[in-house]
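User: Fold this, then the next.

Assistant: Folding the first:
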Amino acid sequence: MAEFDQIQETITYEHEHEAKSYKELIVSKSAARRLLLAMALQASVQMTGVSAIQYYSVSIYGQIGISAQDSLKYQAINSIIALIAQALCMAFIDRFGRRWPLIWGNLGNMVTFIIATALLAHYPPEVKNTGAHWGFIIVTWIYNFSFSATCGPLSWIIPAEIFDTRTRAKGVSLATMTSFAFNTMIGQVTPIALKHSHWRYYLLFVVCNFTNAIFFWATLPETKKVPLEEMNELFNTAPYFVPGSEVTNTWRSGDLERRAGDIEREKVPVSHLEEKNEAS
């Protein structure tokens, strides 16, 4: 009952004060901080290398000597792995939270790209090495599982939940625009980079996955079990440098607990009256 009252009151207030323009996402420090995080998250996901692999899997597998027909077969298996990983993310997201899965996911992506880059560098197409082929394929599958269980779903979950009702539509639209802008850039750059830089192109994703992890470790507060109605309080009071602060969780407003306490106190006189009537 307390949570319902909080939701109803917050939605009513935010609809009455709905953001009229995108400017309101900038003038408020709390909203601007959330907008920066949402846009950075969407950009970072494209810089994990996922779009390059999805769009140019045949060319990428070809760099280590795998045929186009086999590449499509392995990519189909990759898609099934992604579905399984995304289902696991949905099942366990509220147990493990958002912050650390995103950080570890980027680090996992980085490790797989390091291994893939080494394989591409040492086993070019003219070197017929079946072990290297399978090693590259398996590393790609592991990468896809890591990405699809963490970074991929979280890039849509986090922006949708950190904005309040009055700014959510505009904030998420800008985050989505950022995603497609970086997606387009990767789509245009990748074939040129594969042609001229070969395996060195993958070093970009090694670096970006590492910097993604560092950035979100430093700036993204944990939102697990924080009601949407308390996101404003979270981003108003959480420090800009997050590490260490999540231990104390000092930003929780306690509004929901206060409401629950008020309801319990209101029930006390009623229960006493019922006991008195039964006694008489």
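Now the next one, as you asked:
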Amino acid sequence: MAVSRIANASRAARHEAITERCASLESAFPGKTFSSTDQENLYQNEVASYFSVQDRLRPSCFVTPTNTKDVSKVVTLLSQGSCKFAIKAGGHGLPVGASNIAEGVTIDLVRMNDVTLSADKTTAAVGPGAKWGQVYNVLDAQGYAIPGGRAGGVGVGGLTTGGGNSFFASRYGFVCDNVKNFEVVLGSGEIVQANNQTNPDLFTALKGSSNNLGIVTRFDIVAFKQGNLWGGMATYNSSKTREQIRAIVSFTDKVAKNPFGSLISLWTYLKGVEGVSITNLYEYTGAGGELGLGVLPEFEDFAPTSPIGAPLKDTLRSANLSSLTGELNAPPELSNLYATLTFSNNETVLNGVVDILSDELQKYKDHDFFVYASIQFQPLPRIFVEHSLERGGNVLGLERNLDNNVFVEVFLLDLAWSGAQNDAKNYQVADEVIGRLQKYARSVGGLKEFQYLNYASQSQDPLGGYGPEALNKIKAASTKYDPGQVFQKLVPGGFKLADAGKKAPLPGSV
């Protein structure tokens, strides 16, 4: 009883302290701070703005700064009061709590969404709260583009600090590698710039470290002329799984020779539907894309005359980035779970992966908690890494594996997941499936350490997967630029440095 009373008293004191911080924020930022007691409608809009239903936590208050000085003041107020907080950019990222918090303050950067092309048109200044669809709408109108997200509803901040893949990765590398300058608010509230000349160690460490070092309030990203792309979705006969894998492997091996092509192969398992639906997402970023699948050398392995055959249906067309990224958004109002692994680009390995997934997901397809799941094969060829090294490097650690890789993204999306009663079961399924895949891929020499942070589940260890050298760069930057360890102690969400390399193996993975 005494222990219970002490715990209750501690919770009450903590709640009171957070409430006081929210009151201070409301006083400092009237019209920009929302609590459930005073602005229920505005507060509820903030809660509902998260992509995944289970991430719609209810913090003590939301604060929505409009500029970097606002962010600096917010961080100072919160750190001085030792108040825990979360940082939201687009609200698309997982795992749960990565950009929201149940007991604390959520800083929502949604109002910091400006997109400005520089006078010389070599860079675009982008606010962290912008979504990629907003970015492309602005730049499409001017005939320019930047490397960015492939789904228009994803936010700029999380994708870029987590690495970021794009349709242009074979030409320019990861999104983070194309940032020329970060404007950052540190744990002390200090505003700094990070680039090749100023704070270069912070500059490198920000490219893959997520929310561990500070709040990025502006990204200056390389811009280039860009007209319409050619691309869209093409759905295929599900009996051609082996042929699809062969084409994916061949495409990945040849990307360096034909860097204008981008591929995502999406395999969907639907509740009550036998087999798998295979949809390939093709994008061609060069001129002449209207020639199509049968002519473009980038996609010769997917030509209608190839073993995989012609698509059963498609949306292939010439269109701008706004249009093409608009069709890649996942359905809203669902609970979502991501998990990821990286495999060698090898037919045998990937066919084994597909066999295991078909076996595992078949077990769950008819359960009430399951509606559909999808997996994605996304090429990760060495040319991505070469572009990274040319631009000064990042902390993803991929230079350790300069062969061709394919990283697999495993989504488990439960359309019937209307409440928390199904959360635990879905996480269990994901852990079991990923554990079995890890064990198999390791046994055939096809498993890589890298786990793409933006797709990792809460059970995974993407920072540990970067390797000791890269991880030490992030830790050194954390010690130097955040000596009070604000972003380790007061920002509990996401993947933290203290946990890197220490997570227990998933069930069945060893």
